[in-house]
Amino acid sequence: MSLSSLTRALRSLSLTQPALLSSQRAISNTQLSAPPVTLLAAVGQCRGFLTTVSLDQNRTLWKQMEKYTIKPMGMKKTGGRDHTGKIRTHGIGGGHKQRYRWIDFQRLRYEPGKDGRAFDEKVVEVRYDPCRSADIALVAGGNRKRWLIATENMQVGDLIKTSGVIGRMAVSANEGDAYPVGALPVGTLVNNLEIQPGRGAQYIRAAGTSGVLLRKVNGTAIVQLPSKQQVQILETCMVTVGRVSNIDHNKRIIGKAGRNRWLGIRPSSGLWQRKGGWAGRKIRPLPPMKNYANLPSISAQ
Fold first, then answer.
1. Number of Cβ atoms within 10 Å of the Cβ of 45
2. CA neighbours within 13 Å on the CB side: how many for 121?
3. Which end of the chain is more exposed for a tag (fewer CB within 10 A), N or C?
């Protein structure tokens, strides 16, 4: 029985070898004589293969745009892959199509010819943003409109003030106003914190978060982040007063596995792994304070 099956296998190999040679000759003849359309049709019948081709041609380079716009911009999915096509972040893929709204994190941005003056802006719209956990607000003032991170109680029609002046007395700021951190009284709840003047907000931007201004020392200010980490920054760094909007973000109920797929979150492998020493409650001391006061200025860079 086994001998007959082995004989059949050898016979099939001997028959398929000339067939492969003839097919290769036919393809070579097609390449020489047929037009490119026929060649593509012949190649299309072959089995495809996967490559890690650069994905730069699939990216929307909205980060390199020079002119600001409030229009939603198209944004293609990355699937957790970098520009080489390799997966860099697991658990990302699929999800509903999203459009990006350009947030202006540099709150103290003067209009041409109005440098150094405080200005007011009116809230035109407060809406959901699919690209972040917090809500965003469309504000208008002067000859421009821009998107900002909305605060907890911000509503349509509110006037928000932005000033870069540090006075001798601490100001009594309202929620949504933006001032240098040195102009605010100690104990103020803040968000959208700059770590370098003029660089734009980098800390405390997630939904429902806020920091606390602890103290001011020799031209610097010490702010406690939501993680209890303390940072020391220059008093000229801009900050927004209040708490970030959408405070109930952490209380949302997913409800089913499909909703995570709508959000672009892929499931884990499901492989059971024993919990080691990293699991469980630990009492650790607070991390040391980070000092951003001695960094070079933006103009020097």
1. 6
2. 26
3. N
